[in-house]
Each structure stands twice: as structure tokens, then as C-alpha cells.
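Thread: "does anyone have the structure for this chain?"

Original post by V.I.:
We have the sequence but no experimental structure in hand. Need at least a predicted one for the grant figures.
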Amino acid sequence: MTLTARQAVSACVALSVCAVLLVPGLAHGLGTDARITLVVFALATCAWIGTSVDDTYIALGAGLVLAAAGVISSDTLFATLGDSTVWLLICAFVIAAAVSRSGLAGRAAAFLVGGARTVRQLVHLTTTALVLTAFAVPATSGRAALALPVFLALAKALADRKRLVVMLALLFPTVILLSAVATLIGAGAHLITVSVLWEATGQRIGFTQWLLLGLPLAVVSSHLAAELVLLTTTRRADRDGPVDISVEEIQQHSDKPVTGPLEPGEARCAMLLGTVVVLWCSEPLHGVTPALVALIGAVVAASPALGTVRLKDALTTVPWSLLLFMAATMAMGAALTQSGAAEWLVSGLPTGTGVPTWVFLAVVVALSTAAHLVLQSRSARSSVLVPLVVAAAVGLGVNPVAAALASTAAAGFCHTLPASAKPVTLFADVPGIPTYGPRDLLRLSAVLAPLTAAVVLLFALGVWPLLGVAP
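Reply from O.Q.:
Generated one for you, C-alpha cells below.
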């Protein structure tokens, strides 16, 4: 078998790291458990980068080795799958299945997009609608699948204006990826970040706090990115032309009515979704955890009398592979922290105030923004970066919550290549519709990457302190 350059580099790096860690006398101050953890961590990371083996399989293998070696207990490994954040995601997918089945998404699209009269209005109304889906559908791939029929309707209505269709094809995945930071359930990487913070510092970020910090960032970054997509993919003549998209054109791509009075199932689903979101946001008032609220909502959504979807059908929409991946990487994060490996990795950094906070956060944001070029899985990026970022932040006197959030938010940028993220891949190849190519993505990323990094850094240093999270 011939190795590619990427595979050869990954293999060399992995073997070099293992040699340094396993040779006696090297890596002073590193205990046996920490050595094993770092070897497993290095091998898993290089496998994620350089092989086509499924990410979940690699993560499960790494977790198994750590448990078998005694670095973590088997209870720790298996308990991660029962973590409340995992249950939150499972139940959120059940609720999302009910929302998708009810037809509410089509009505919302018709209501928002149908009111656009100019290209800029269409872009920003679409952006607003996509940001709002972060509350209804967990994970970016699920939101992309939900939004695809809306894009098809818009593309058919604008078939004679090819540049606008290409612009919308870029707009949808861009906003979906950048707006995921709005909510805790926006991406599996968020749950990994919360778990690492809890394990390393004892600080837990709840749904409400994440919403308070993430939603403003999602709104600002999404609308800035939308304007950038509009300016980089269209000409003035394209933007000056009027837009007239009828409800009938949107209806052609929906098997549910998008206008008229709400059907009983739609009304129940809208009330359920609104209640769940309100309860999530008001957790400090009633004290019911988001996972328990989600479980109640899932039970109601799948109930024979009030629900709009059968439970077994809803459970088929749950990305079980992602959940297993999350559980395994949570165990890896716990091993990094408990064994002292993460602390040893950052022990060479100057302690106290030797490094200005803004410099440290700028480096974290830059590395996290660029990490998608090496690790295509968003969750894998968080599982690798966040434990190290948290450990380094503690050693330097930086707030680990601010550092972890900044890293996770910056890692949401993954637009450079068609294979960098599932939503980008999905909208890059839509049969019968002109979309974007690698050159379009590179042109957009050249401007969007520094813009996104700058916005995240601005929030970490200037906005989040006003909301109670000092850097």
C-alpha cells in the first residue's frame, strides 16, 4: 500500500512522539499514566488526520486502551455515554424530528423569505431564519438537511440569476456553521467543551449561560459573513435587481402547507418547541436542568395523543455515531486531566502574568480557526484543543471558560475546502443547481477566516466581560 504525503507525515509524527514518551529518561516529570495517555492521544490524533478510518472507531479504540491500561476506570468510560449533555442531545433530536415532521420549518421559511424585495433583504432574512434554526435542530448537519428544501425553492425561483444562486449556496452552509455557537446543542463540540471544563475546573456552563454568551456572537458573525458572501460572489448589477419569490414557489418544495391556519399537529408542535426553549432559557428561575426539560419535551413530542412523530422514527434521526464519538472523547479528556498529561504539556509555558491575556487568546483563536485544515471533524478539534487550552489558561492565569469558549467558537470556521464540514459538502453538490467550487471557497475563506477570528477575539476581550466572563 502506497502512503500519501498526509499519511506519511502523520505516521512520522505519531512514531516520533511515541519514541520520546516511551524512552526512559526522556520527558522528565511525566508519570506512567500520563505517558500512556499522551501516546494514545498522539496516535488517535494522527489517525484522525492521516487515515480514512471512521473517527468514532478511532475514539472508541483510544478510550478502550485507556481503560484497559488502568488510566481511567471502566466506569468512567461507560459513564460518559450517560452524561446529561448526551441525553440533552438525544432528546433534542427527537424534538427536532417532530418539528421537521410537522411542517413548521416550511412555514417559517415562507414567512421570512417571502417578505424579501431586494437581494440584501433576502440574504439577511435568510440569515435570520438560519440562526433561529439553532434552537430547533441540534448539530449543523441536521440543520443543513432541514434547510436544503428551502434553498432548492429559492434556487428554482432565481434560476435565471446564476450568481445569486451560487451566492445562496455559499450563504446557507456559512451561516449554519457560524451560528451553531448560539446554543449549547448547536454542535457536539460544545458538549465536549462543557465536559472538559467540568472535569478540569469544576465549572459547568449551562444552557442559559451559553445562550447569553453565544447568541450575540452568532448573530453578529452570521450577518457579517452573510454580507461578505454577498459582496464576494455577486456584482453590483446582481444586487440591484429586485427579488420576488412567491409563497407558491416555496410550496412546490414542501409536502406540508406553508400558509393558512396552523393544523392541529403544527400548533401543538409550535407550543411544545416554544415551551421547551423558554424553559431552557429560564433554568436559573425553576432549577430544572436542560436535559430533563429536553426529556420531557421528547416524551410529549412522541406521545400518541399529543406528538407528531413516533418515538422509533424519531430515534432513527439521532446520530448515534456522533454520540459514541462524544462519549469516547470525553473519556479521553478526562484521562488527559486526571493523569496530569495536560498539565505537563503546558508546564513549559511561563506562569502568572508572563504572557498578556490578549496574546494568549489571539493564539488560541488563530490555532482553532486554522485547525479545520488538519482535523476535519469539529468534535475532534475540540477534543484535541480544549483540554490543552484549559490547562494552559489555568497556568497563565487566564479564565479557562473564556479560553475554552473562544477556542470552540473559532473552531466553527471550516469553509476552506468542500470536505471541511458536512454542510459545506452538502451544498457543494446539489443536482441540477449551480453551486460553488473550491475556488469560490478559497476566495471567501481568505477574507472570512481573519474576520471570524477577529470577531471571536473581540467578544472574548470586550463583550463577554460585560456578560460576566472576564478573560
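V.I.: this helps a lot. The CA atoms of residues 67 and 73 lie 6 Å apart.
O.Q.: and The first helix runs from residue 5 to 22.
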